[in-house]
Amino acid sequence: MTEHVLSYMVFIPLAGMLVVLCLPSDRHDLIRWVSAAATVPPLLLGIWLYANFDTTTTSMQFVERAAWIPAFNIEYYVGVDGLSVSMLLLTALLSFLCIFASWGIDKGVKGYFALFLLLDTGMTGVFVALDFVLFYVFWEVMLLPMYFLIGIWGGPRKEYAAIKFFLYTLLGSVLMLVAILALYFYSEPNTFDMTKLMDRSNLYGTEPLAMWPFNVWGWGFQHVVWMALFIGFAIKIPAFPFHTWLPDAHVEAPTAISVILAGILLKMGTYGILRINYPMLPEATADLAFWFLAALGAWNIVYGGLCAMAQTDMKKLVAYSSVSHMGYVMLGMAAFNTQGINGAVLQMFNHGCITAMLFLLVGVIYDRAHHREINGFGGLAGIMPVYAGFTALAFFASMGLPGLSGFVSEVLVLLGAWPKYHALTIVAALGIVITAGYMLWMMQRVYLGPPNEKYRDLPEINGREIFTLFPLGAIVVIVGVYPRVVLDLLQASLNNINQMVISHLS
User: Fold this and answer.
1) Per-residue CA distances from 440 to 101, 391, 399 (Å)
2) Residue range(s) defining the domain that contains residue 481
3) Domains in the chain, number
4) Residue 217: pLDDT above 70?
């Protein structure tokens, strides 16, 4: 089993999708339970992977390799390091929980769960692929099911949100494909092997290209390819100004799909930069990411926070908070030191758990009240105290309260950024105050004060909903108290990636 653990994690959900498609369309409960069963083995294998991962080496582990299209040196090549293991575990956990969060789907049940399992395969594949074609295939596999999951099972403006998501993501995919082909043809011999392309990083030219405006900017091959990849990944993060698809997609998507969007898909943008841009194009990274990425991260923090503060829809507020919190990831990545880059990836993991809780909690109240207007509630803590308790935990974690996971990653990012970017670090620290502002503002209006008589009889959170929230809440507390459970996974791999760039910094 250990020889093919990654393949099992990738393709068991796909096998589950095929089983679901063979089931009668009116057997809704059977479809739900088969779908849930298909997400259990990847989660158990992810836990096994975590327990057996060697944290002392920078080499890829649990590698599987086989010829796929030999004429073009394309392989089925998968493996993991510390960076990908953390994201793989998060993907397996959220996919499992989101199946149960989707239990209330009653329209097109068979199609919904089949597409969800296909989406699970695509997400898992992205984090294990070490061949560029395989990486791109999995990246594109995610696009189609997400489009339909939003466009069919979403809210009133679902078609608009789905098309906007599709067009933005497709633009990024096209730029990625051009960059991938450029790297393939520039390498000698031609290869899509990502590990070989990392080893040959110093062979890519940085001499200014003759084409205008590249010769004016002094950009070489590395810089042009780096920017094409960066835009493709920035759309996923989403970094300003490529962020406008996110609030629409979140607001219209079903609750579980919002969780997947914020908890996993956003992380693929920063994962791609760390997996591809940094080690394959280190000189361009040193030239372009040093101030540019840091400034963009600080801008995202403040801009996203201020946009969140202006919202009256709970789900839209949480969506803009994701734009803000992903800014810390970019700022930490641009620090080019141990604290910064470890804090950035820890923030990816922590934000995945915290924002998943927030969207699940918004979904709980929406299922009961059928709206998400902040000013339409009041006093829910007295009506639903258990629900309010989970909400308070998620809110305080998002604010970065000491003892909870959000605090650790944000502090590491600020510690890493301060030696290089004094002003930007101060701006980023102000983002914590802004976060506290909009979170406490929402808590005051929705959960505190006298109860709204209209909602006095709302039922308390049920066992299934607690089941989806409790593991995430436990992780928020455990990582907040003992962050080494995640940091030990990351240390060796991230230091190795960071070292590839540091040697090129002037």
Assistant:
1) 26, 11, 9
2) 308-322+330-506
3) 1
4) no
